[in-house]
Write a structure and sequence with these properties.
By secondary structure, the protein is mainly alpha-helical. It folds into 2 domains: about 1-50; about 65-95 and about 130-224, no CATH class. About 65% of the residues lie in helices and about 0% in strands. The chain is built from 10 helices and no strands. Helix 4 crosses helix 10 (about 175-200). It starts with a helix and ends in a 23-residue tail after the last helix.
């Protein structure tokens, strides 16, 4: 068990932090939601009812979709795009998908390589892009979930205001949907851009996201 915890500590720590923050969001969101109901002279709801509501669902999924968009764009972008001096970038002469020998696929696969790396055809093509494809799928699914939950939450508010509901396509074209979406996208893209450029000049000893402390600023693709 101790070895399992050590070998998976990064994933487990962030998973635990995720659950704690999700629980915190549920509690404070429930309180805020009930305050809004009281202002409208409506009866408050239980925590369970709030967790099953479209308001909670849209708040959660709008954050998830922006995070998966960030990783999807970063994974695919770093295939071709470079930043001199950043450990987040490949070396300046390695832009593109690289050759089979470098990627250890096909005839260049090793004994400990994944089976689909040694395979040919569609299996190798899918596996060689599987990380980006899964991130793209998770982004699209969570964005779809946000739009569906957002439609329901938006219509609940419209009914309270004695306004007619809108359909899904109408909500997707609305300012509310794009305001929720773009405010998350811009923060994620800013965070990525900041990480890429700050890692050129700043260091974090012991982190693989940083260059070694004594590495020159122009060193590219070097991790500490």
């Amino acid at each position: 068990m101790r070895r399992f915890l050590r070998d998976n500590s990064l994933t487990l720590a962030f998973a635990a932090a995720f659950l704690l923050t999700l629980a915190g969001q549920a509690l404070v969101g429930h309180a805020e939601f009930n305050n809004g109901l009281l202002v409208d002279s409506l009866a408050p709801v239980s925590l369970t009812a709030y967790l099953m509501s479209s308001d909670f669902a849209v708040d959660v999924t709008e954050n998830w979709q922006s995070e998966y968009l960030q990783f999807f764009l970063y994974i695919f972008g770093t295939v071709w795009l470079l930043q001199r001096g950043s450990p987040e970038s490949k070396e300046m002469d390695r832009a593109g998908p690289e050759d089979d020998e470098t990627q250890r696929v096909g005839a260049h696969a090793r004994d400990d390589s994944p089976r689909w790396a040694a395979a040919g055809g569609i299996r190798q093509k899918l596996f060689s892009r599987s990380l980006g494809l899964v991130m793209a799928a998770l982004f699209l699914l969570s964005w779809l979930a946000q739009s569906v939950a957002g439609t329901a939450a938006h219509n609940e508010q419209r009914l309270r205001d004695l306004q007619p509901p809108v359909d899904w396509s109408g909500y997707v074209l609305s300012a509310d949907f794009w305001s929720r979406t773009l405010q998350n996208w811009q923060s994620e893209l800013l965070a990525v851009a900041s990480m890429v450029i700050l890692s050129v000049y700043l260091r974090q000893r012991g982190s693989p996201e940083s260059k070694p402390v004594g590495a020159p600023h122009h060193a590219t693709g070097v991790e500490g």
